[in-house]
Amino acid sequence: MTRQFPSRCSSCGEQKVNPTILDTYSCNIKHYGHIYSVVVKDLPVLSCGSCGELYFLASSDEKISDALRNKLGFLSPAEVTNLRKSLKLSRYAFANKVGMRSNNVKRLEEGIIVQSRRTDKKIRELLQKE
To answer: Could you tell me which residues come within 8 angstroms of residue 1 by beta carbon, excluding any fewer than 6 positions away?
Structure first.
């Protein structure tokens, strides 16, 4: 199903919501009890041309999570996946080695979650042993 634009804004009710790219978007993200300021370039969003309300897309969330990983110096989802596969480990075996649940390994590899500093360190330790 393809979304039709412009669509109706849930804030002001106007039919003026369209896809756009924000040149620069700054936000604060709480991650494991700490607040981090991140800046994201070229962020895809939906924006109301009347009231300015922003609607975030799945691709928006991915770019924001990538910016947080980058700021913290964490491994990317692709790097985690490549490491696990190079070690010839199932997600279950990999999870046991780094001390996390196997369903979280899947979510980490898909970029749905951002790992903790402790988990990133344990993954890097596996990388050094390789």
So the answer is: none
Of 120, 33, 126, 47, the closest CA to residue 84 belongs to: 126
**Domain 77-129: CATH class, spelled out:** mainly alpha
- What does the alpha-carbon distance between residue 117 and residue 63 come to, in Å, rounded to a whole number? 19
Read off the DSSP letter of residue 13: -
Give the domain ranges of the chain.
17-57, 77-129
Q: Is the torsion defined by CA of 41, 42, 47, 51 positive or negative?
A: positive
0.85 cut: is pTM over it? yes
90 vs 41, 105, 108, 122, CA distance in Å? 35, 10, 14, 16
| pLDDT score for 129 | 78
